[in-house]
Write a structure and sequence with these properties.
This protein is an alpha/beta fold. About 35% of the residues lie in helices and about 15% in strands. The chain has helices at about 5-10, 15-35, 40-50, and strands spanning about 60, 65, 70-75, 80, 85, 90-95, 100.
């Protein structure tokens, strides 16, 4: 079993080259998101959809940081405020109509 499979089964894993290749993809998407025009609400929402893989009315104010993006599931009308960090080495599920505001 490789380390991506181990991570997917929520087992201990090592961030080898294959795992880091996945992170490299989302890091580029997150970097693009974090440098976008803050008044381009449609563009920001579209980029969050690329990062998370799916979203229904989700919006996050940049900057935002995550490990993989695809392990984050947000419900309808999710709102994340500035400087939100979600460490998604495992599944992260956030329900409908939730607001996340970092301390």
């Amino acid at each position: 079993m490789n380390h991506i499979e181990r991570r997917g089964r929520e087992m201990l894993y090592i961030s080898d080259e294959s795992v880091m290749a996945e992170q490299k993809i989302v890091r580029k998407l997150v970097q693009e998101f974090n440098t976008m025009d803050r008044s381009d609400f449609a563009g920001l929402a579209a980029q969050i959809k690329k990062i998370l893989g799916k979203s229904d009315g989700a919006f996050i104010n940049p900057p935002f940081y995550c490990d993989y993006g695809k392990n984050i599931e947000v419900g309808k009308n999710f709102f994340g405020n500035y400087n939100l960090t979600i460490l998604d080495t495992g599944k992260v599920r956030i329900g409908d109509n939730c607001q996340c505001a970092p301390n």
